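Project standup — Tuesday

K.O.: blocked on the structure for the chain from last sprint. Re-posting the sequence here as requested.
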Amino acid sequence: MHRVTIEKGNLRFSAAHFISFAGKCERLHGHNYAVCATLAGELTDDRYVFDFVELKRLVKDLCDRLDHRFLLPRKSPCLTVTEADGEVEVRFKNRRYVFPRHDVLDLPLDNITAERLAEYLAGELAAALAPNPNLSHIEVGVEESPGQTAYFRLTLAGGN
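H.V.: unblocked you, prediction finished:
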């Protein structure tokens, strides 16, 4: 089994969020996230796991979709979300936030933690890489601040 990893450079995004946990909600804040990705699998006929340049492009495209947005966990049981007149209103108990619709990115997550972002990005990357049967695993790391990185490892159809 071989692996390739990409990290650093322009594999970054800045985004706002808050986390709800234990009946509480953090203050609205943001991070300058960094993303890394590892692909594992057998070598292709061309003797590589996957082209570094193409992998960087795929991950950079994912980062660009998240960049400079408020990340909204659409599956959160703690939030009430309504939309009207080009705005998104998010409520948590007595807190109320109103964002312009174009600044909000709805994500199919229950919370916007680094762990859940890593899982989301791994799933999106897996969908983009589906035509590559040599790949067996994807691992994505999301660093929310230096020294604090969450990882998610996904086994692909060709993996064990």
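K.O.: great, moving the ticket to review. The radius of gyration is 17 Å. Helices lie at 52-66, 114-129.
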